[in-house]
Amino acid sequence: MPVYNPPLRDMQFVMHEVLNVSAEFQSMPQHAEVDAETINAVLEEAGKFASQVIFPLNISGDTEGCTLDKTTHEVKTPTGFKAAYKTYVEGGWAALSCDPAYGGQGLPLVVNQCLYEMMNSANQAWTMYPGLTHGAYAALHTYGTDAQKDTYLPKMTSGEWTGTMCLTEPHCGTDLGLMRTKAEPLADGTYKITGNKIFISAGEHDMADNIIHLVLARLPDAPPGIKGVSLFIVPKFHVKADGSLGERNGIYCGGLEHKMGIHGNATAQIVIDGAIGTMVGQPNKGMQAMFVMMNAARLGVGNQSLGLTEVAYQNALAYAKDRIQMRSLTGPKAKDKPADPIIVHPDVRRMLLTAKAYAEGGRALAIYSSVLLEKAHNHPDEKVRKDSDEMLSLLTPITKAFLTDNGYNAATMCQQVFGGHGYIKEWGMEQFVRDARINMIYEGTNTIQSLDLLGRKVLGNNGATLKKFGKLVGALVMEEGVNEKMAEFINPLAVLGEQITKFTTEIGFKGLQNADEVGAAAVDYLRVAGHLVFGYFWARMAQVALREIAAGNTDPFYVAKLQTARFYFAKLFPETATLMRTARAGSKVLMDTDAALA
Amino acid sequence: MPVYNPPLRDMQFVMHEVLNVSAEFQSMPQHAEVDAETINAVLEEAGKFASQVIFPLNISGDTEGCTLDKTTHEVKTPTGFKAAYKTYVEGGWAALSCDPAYGGQGLPLVVNQCLYEMMNSANQAWTMYPGLTHGAYAALHTYGTDAQKDTYLPKMTSGEWTGTMCLTEPHCGTDLGLMRTKAEPLADGTYKITGNKIFISAGEHDMADNIIHLVLARLPDAPPGIKGVSLFIVPKFHVKADGSLGERNGIYCGGLEHKMGIHGNATAQIVIDGAIGTMVGQPNKGMQAMFVMMNAARLGVGNQSLGLTEVAYQNALAYAKDRIQMRSLTGPKAKDKPADPIIVHPDVRRMLLTAKAYAEGGRALAIYSSVLLEKAHNHPDEKVRKDSDEMLSLLTPITKAFLTDNGYNAATMCQQVFGGHGYIKEWGMEQFVRDARINMIYEGTNTIQSLDLLGRKVLGNNGATLKKFGKLVGALVMEEGVNEKMAEFINPLAVLGEQITKFTTEIGFKGLQNADEVGAAAVDYLRVAGHLVFGYFWARMAQVALREIAAGNTDPFYVAKLQTARFYFAKLFPETATLMRTARAGSKVLMDTDAALA
User: Fold this and answer.
1) What confidence tens digit (pLDDT) does each residue in A566-587 have?
2) How far A258 CA sits from the closest chain B CA (Å)?
3) What ipTM describes this predicted complex?
4) How far, in Å, CA of A533 to CA of A392, rounded?
5) Distance of alpha carbon A412 from alpha carbon A401, whole angstroms
6) pLDDT digits (tens, 9 = 90+) for B481-510
7) Alpha-carbon gap, residue B322 to B340, rounded angstroms
8) How far apart are CA A343 and CA A500, in angstroms?
9) I need a surface site. Which of A385, A597, B155, B435 has the fewest CB within 10 A?
10) In this structure, are strands B237-239 and B245-248 parallel, antiparallel, or unpaired?
11) Residues B115 and B233 placed together within one structural domain of the fold
């Protein structure tokens, strides 16, 4: 059976020793009192919920899956899912970082970030049920009317109701402008909505009393394309004036997808058959609110793969210490045993350390991003809000694509450590790979993320935001450039910081002549940017570790951190050499291929 | 539903235009009459068998899986598998390249190679039932007594009986020296065998009349470790003197594994409960015969991933042309449609061309290897036999590991082309990924392959065999070095050819001081060697294409080949830059990590 130990120590390290989040919170009135002790205490309990309540349901949920009653259109989730959700709601976990105005606990988002990392490690399929609610909550919180907020947010905050995002249709995934679902205005100000949605995660289930679908649809007079899309709240059950549940609305599950993974989550085909909904935000401006959901979801998907990377790593490490097979190339190590544990082999260590370096680098980025999101919403200084939002917009596609590509590779490597046993369901490793696979696809494929990063977030403002990140890198280089002990971390980072500026300008110029040059370079570019970001955080983590060691701290945690940082810079970061070369190969080798792709 | 079109044209190109296999066969008496027409005609029919008989059973076989009757220990294969196998046997496909002395058709191995590529594309799980027989056949053909050969080979040649390789035990996979299965000699010269084997592919099924298990076990007085392992034939049913089937032997299926993929193949736990067997070869020399099976299996596993790469590519290409979504970055291409087909996007082309370049490069290597195997067995000149065997021994771990790593990546990319639909079972893409995953693990993990390549095949003879391959590269560079049109292919190949010599020497010297340096570099090294081999074949393929075009041939096949060669050298080959850098990072960053991996 797989194991999972919440990585509380590493979370504490990133939050308190590297990023000093409490200092950030002191400038925000609503969080000024939140100290490290409070955060740590909450996360310790959160870790127990993840590891003790939902982790034991991960394999069984995958094996059992969800079932649809085609008569009632009700979905039964795997055994134990509903009870675990009840525990979640009763524990107040749904409300952790929600607005106290609607019953939330008002804790900083970083706490929710860490809760979700652990829940994703424990059970991604289960975690998507509450997880989807947060995006819907955010969209309503930002764009809902007071009446809508009063009706829906308290129950979504408590977790009694969950939310969904109903975007995709059979013929339109990436290209939402092709959407056909229709919304007709009714005399009472509501809308009658008709259409078919697919791939709706947590789209139907038996875990909550009501499901609040946020549905993209077109008004009768809507302009074509993406500028004619509006957003609607379409609850599964109507909500009466007193807040109690009324009649069933005309929105139901018409089928469940058979998927590679996340079997425990109901991926629903949703039939909307004259359902009644209310509009969120302005007519034909649905994409604004949709992007509030989508950006939350993209960070959430990166966090899913962070969770899977961590749990896959923990299990592969345990196996590599336990499994004896062959002798070390340098002579027997476990002389009392008939063979050595496989962790003596350099390549087994490479696979393990790859996962570890990706998990810990990803955790630093994810926690940093959650602080940016906090500041973007809650900082009293408008400039800080704006700057934080801008930086987060740069880091969002990197978090989504880089963490999910890395997560799939890491899960695959951790599975490889198990040899043949990794291919067998009972060990749990193959499920991590299957679950991790969806994260590269949904909420915008990783190709879409790369175009968002390079086309919109970087070239779209002439590299201004990237330069701001570059300043952080530059400041660290200035600070540590003469510290010999930091040279192995700072030097490659400094080089990449300079290279990426030139690299970006180059692609920008080529892109002006031919937009396909941007598309041809984007995926490679995103990974280069990902390593700039990871390199920055790994250097900062190494900096803290070196300082602690210099100060006489003998906690082996810091030695471990340095070893992993060294591995990262020596074995993973150099990927940038090839990526810049292949990106520079340009678009011709891709586009001048009609005969090859005939 | 997925599609599959046998890539006959490309096989013909490699066999007849690049490698000129018929000229090779003329020097071998038994094949001197085999011309291109004969080969092509057989493969056309083979392609029909693969695409029409077993391809339609691929998804259904995965969904249904195998079932074990725990009372009778009999395994039921998925619906249609048994009937398809009957068609296979009746069509004579089992006997294609087998020895005419035992009823085989005696066609060159290259024909069998191409048959199996197509069957692997069509249905890897099904193909493993007949596929495992070839390794057992080869071991018996080489090491069996005349009596053993007369008893077993005719029925294995016809396909009436299938074979297995019973190596792995719960506590020993890679490290066969830990094996516990016991063989006690009996007075009549047979052996009574007792033990437990796991992960036995095609270990039990209802498709053939008898199953010939080749079982590794230990004699009572055997020395410890790998030098005390012997090989035995243990048939499911005893075979009477007249060749008819006798009593059930004490070897049966105790359980089936629940796996990530290849659900249609029965991966059996095999209980050997006092079964009677006869020895193959000499006592305690079982590993010799085992390696005949194993080398065949390793080439076969590379071929499995070649097949999956091809079929995944074909489906992704069809989808990319059909699916409309978004507009080209350079403006609308399909102006009559609401969106452009996604093949207009550079990154979609990158994913498709990656799979195509891996498939076609892999096909060239696999066909070349099958000709080497032919020459190693059947060439009248002993030196040619020896040289061919030596070169094949170098290329075997490359074929196994490089093709299977590439195949998994390619299948993952092809799945990505489908967006969300790639994650849904009905489209078939996720199955290709799940099936491809095992190929990196079984018959020696890819890490083991890399140690075999670098440690044994390269450094083990001071790079002598690698230098022989280098001479082929050098000859091509000499031949085409001044041809401007070949420069884009020849220049990077020539550079890598020089780099790899230095790189190998460097690792060799470091390895003398510290054997872990070899283990630390091996996986990166194998991929570099893989690109040297692929680069060589891609340059040769481009050479033929350029000559045909220069000669006025207007077949777009040659333009396609050139475009794919260009893509390969521009976008895939440059991976070697990073690989050499990370390999040079050495073992310290991996081994000095005890705190990190505590």
Assistant:
1) 999 999 999 999 999 999 999 9
2) 6
3) 0.98
4) 12
5) 17
6) 999 999 999 999 999 999 999 999 999 999
7) 9
8) 36
9) A385
10) antiparallel
11) no
The span from the CA of A111 to the CA of A31, in Å, is 12
Cβ-in-10-Å burial (0-12, 13-18, 19+) of A385 comes to middle
The interface residues of chain A toward chain B in range 309-328, judged by CB-CB distance below 8 A, are 317, 320, 325-326, 328
Does B120 share its domain with B250?
no
Last residue of a domain, one of A143, A173, A196: A143
Residue B339 lies in a domain: no
Active site residue A74: no
For residue A298 the two structure tokens come to 């993209």
Q: State the burial class of residue A179 (Cβ atoms within 10 Å of its Cβ: 0-12, 13-18, 19+).
A: buried
- Are B99 and B16 part of one and the same domain? yes
Catalytic residue among A169, A430, A443, A548: A443
For residues B395, B359, B202, B50, the Cα torsion angle rounded to the nearest 10 degrees is -130
Q: Is B292 inside a domain boundary? A: no
Residue of B nearest to A594 (CA): B560
Split into its structural domains, chain A has a count of 3
Same domain, B466 and B597: yes
User: Same domain, yes or no, for B474 and B576?
Assistant: yes
Helices (H) and strands (E) in chain A, counts: 18, 11
Among all chains, which residue has been given the structure tokens 């008002």? A106
Q: What does the alpha-carbon distance between residue A279 and residue A234 come to, in Å, rounded to a whole number? A: 9
pLDDT tens string A476-513: 999 999 999 999 999 999 999 999 999 999 999 999 99
DSSP B17-53: IIS-HHHHHHTSGGGTT--HHHHHHHHHHHHHIIIII
* Distance of alpha carbon B506 from alpha carbon B584, whole angstroms: 9
User: Under a CB-based contact definition with an 8 Å cutoff, are residues B172 and B415 in contact?
Assistant: no
Q: Which of B251, B284, B317 is the last residue of a domain?
A: B284
* Interchain contact A582–B (C-beta under 8 A): yes
- Looking at the fold, whether A129 and A16 belong to one and the same domain comes out as yes
Residues of B in contact with A345 (CB under 8 A): 447, 519
Taking contacts as CB-CB distances below 8 angstroms, the residues of chain A near B528 are none
Which helix (H) or strand (E) segment holds residue A68: the answer is strand A67-68
Per CB-CB distance under 8 Å, the chain B contacts of A592 are: 563
Which CATH number does the domain housing residue B20 bear? 1.10.540.10
CA distances from B546 to B138, B532, B542 (A): 40, 21, 6
B573 touching A, CB under 8 A?
no
- 3-state secondary structure (DSSP) of residue A73: coil
How far off is chain A from B416, nearest CA to CA, in Å?
7
Among chain A residues, the shortest Cα distance to B200 is held by: A420
Q: Which two tokens stand for residue A462?
A: 């002439």
Assign B595 a pLDDT band (cuts: 50, 70, 90). very high
User: A128, A267, A350: best mutation site toward chain B, by most B Cβ within 10 Å?
Assistant: A350
Residue B474 lies in a domain: yes
CA atoms within a 13 Å half-sphere pointing along the CA-CB vector of A468:
16
Long-range contacts of B552-558 (CB under 8 A, 24+ apart): B556/A595, B556/A598, B557/B9, B557/B13
Domain that includes residue A118, residue range: 8-143
B186 and B97, same structural domain? no
Nearby residues of A62 by Cβ (< 8 Å), 6 or more positions away = A125, A261, A263, A264, A425, A431, A435
Residues A587 and A476 occupy one common structural domain = yes
Q: How far is CA A328 from its chain centroid?
A: 38
CB A345 within 8 A of CB B519: yes
Q: Could you say which of B423, B559, B582 has the minimum Cβ distance to residue A574?
A: B582
Cβ atoms of B378 and B409 within 8 Å: the answer is: no
What's the pLDDT at B564? 98
- With respect to residue A275, please indicate whether it lies within any of the assigned structural domains: yes
The set of catalytic residues of B is 443
Q: Which two tokens stand for residue B341?
A: 């087909």
Query: For residue A194, how many other CB atoms are within 10 A of its CB?
Result: 17
- Please determine, for residue B1, whether its predicted confidence score (pLDDT) is greater than 90: no
